[in-house]
């Protein structure tokens, strides 16, 4: 009896185990079937960004530079610009492929597609700089090239100087171009002006600067003006007697240097100390300095003290600059700058 009871227990346990395994296999089979159905009816989530894994590749070819950003971004640096979108994609994904020129460059060519349509996407057709590319289970190859964007800049010189370079220049647009203005003797630089076109001058008040051509053509001019410092000598006469009483110098602008001048006043009179009385000329000389920054300098003249009457009085004025006599229209170099001095007596 004990043996029979033992066998019944074993058989019962075996049946339970078989039933559990049956349910387990059934559950696994249902799970596999559910998973299969899910994969078939629900597509994977797809990103339009290039990845490091995937079955299909976007390749962009061109003249590359030595320095490259991280390829994981899908951006490649070429001579004259960058292109984005290279990398690995899922077969049902989409790629955004674009080309961006650097300043001073423009797209020369940009096209690509799958092997079956190598120019499915082409910048030449409408000038597109980016393409939305469905992968559709195919590799894609793109080609890109950039070229310099050029234009015509004309550089002129006004009266009183010259420029370097001069005339019409074929230059790269959107890139600073060096220019220089050179004044002639007796002139100074008075600034750059833009005559036509879109031109940006870095410092219009500098003789050496840069000009950036933003349009297809443009014209600029260097302006100059004469370094003229005019010095006037004035005198007043006594209401009675006619001799010079007051003398002064005046300039049109404050002088940036010192001018030394010497003036000689003279007058003639009948001198009754002679027998018979004679017309005698008397002179009184004086000198002074017209300092930097002054517009006017005033001086008194002298009388001889004679008992006779003054007659036909006048004033002589001479100027010296840096110990050199000043003649009208002569050029002087003072403190490194050139001046055209006009010394005038009125």
Outline the structure in words:
- Helices cover 12% and strands 54% of the residues.
- The protein has one helix spanning 2-41; strands at 56-61, 75-78, 81-84, 87-89, 94-101, 105-113, 121-122, 130-134, 140-148, 150-157, 161-164, 167-172, 177-183, 187-201, 208-226, 228-237, 244-251, 259-271, 278-290, 296-300, 310-321, 324-325, 330-334, 337-345.
- The chain has 346 residues and is mostly beta strands.
- It is rod-shaped, with a radius of gyration of 48 Å.
- Strands 10, 11, 12, 13, 14 and 15 form a six-stranded mixed sheet that branches.
User: How would you describe the oligomerization state of the chains in this entry?
Assistant: single chain
Mean pLDDT: 76
Biggest β-sheet: count, sense, barrel? 6 strands, mixed
| Distance separating the two termini | 158 Å
Q: Number of DSSP strands? A: 24
Percent range for β-strand residues: over 45%
User: What is Rg?
Assistant: 48 Å
Order of helices and strands: HEEEEEEEEEEEEEEEEEEEEEEEE
- Principal-axis shape: rod-shaped
Secondary structure class reads mainly beta
Helical amount among residues, as a percent range?
Answer: 10-25%
Unreliable spans are 16-20, 22-48, 239-243, 304-312
What's the total helix number? 1
């Amino acid at each position: 009896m004990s043996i029979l009871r033992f066998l019944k227990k074993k058989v019962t346990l075996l049946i339970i185990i078989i039933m559990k395994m049956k349910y387990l296999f059934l559950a696994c089979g249902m799970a596999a079937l559910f998973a299969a159905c899910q994969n078939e009816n629900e597509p994977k989530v797809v990103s339009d960004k290039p990845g490091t894994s995937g079955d299909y590749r976007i390749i962009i070819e061109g003249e590359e530079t030595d320095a490259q950003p991280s390829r994981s971004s899908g951006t490649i640096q070429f001579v004259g610009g960058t292109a984005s979108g290279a990398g690995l994609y899922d077969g049902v994904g989409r790629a955004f492929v674009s080309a961006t020129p650097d300043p001073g460059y423009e797209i020369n060519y940009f096209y690509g597609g799958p092997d079956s349509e190598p120019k499915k996407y082409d910048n030449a057709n409408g000038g597109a700089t980016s393409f939305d590319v469905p992968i559709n289970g195919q590799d894609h190859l793109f080609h890109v090239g950039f070229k310099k964007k050029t234009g015509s800049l004309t550089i002129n010189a006004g009266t009183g100087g010259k420029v370097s370079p001069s005339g019409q220049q074929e230059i790269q647009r959107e890139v600073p171009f060096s220019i220089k203005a050179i004044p002639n003797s007796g002139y100074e630089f008075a600034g750059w002006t833009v005559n036509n076109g879109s031109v940006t001058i870095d410092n219009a008040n500098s003789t050496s600067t840069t000009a950036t051509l933003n349009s297809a053509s443009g014209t600029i001019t260097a302006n100059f003006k004469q370094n003229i410092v005019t010095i006037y000598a004035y005198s007043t006469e006594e209401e009675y007697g006619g001799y010079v009483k007051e003398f002064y110098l005046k300039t049109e602008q404050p002088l940036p240097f010192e001018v030394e001048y010497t003036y000689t006043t003279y007058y003639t009179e009948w001198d009754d100390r002679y027998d018979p009385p004679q017309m005698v000329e008397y002179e009184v000389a004086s000198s002074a300095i017209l300092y930097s920054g002054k517009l006017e300098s005033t001086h008194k003249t002298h009388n001889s003290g004679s008992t006779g009457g003054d007659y036909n009085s006048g004033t002589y004025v001479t100027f010296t600059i840096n110990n050199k006599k000043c003649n009208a229209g002569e050029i002087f170099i003072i403190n490194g700058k050139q001046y055209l001095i006009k010394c005038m007596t009125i």
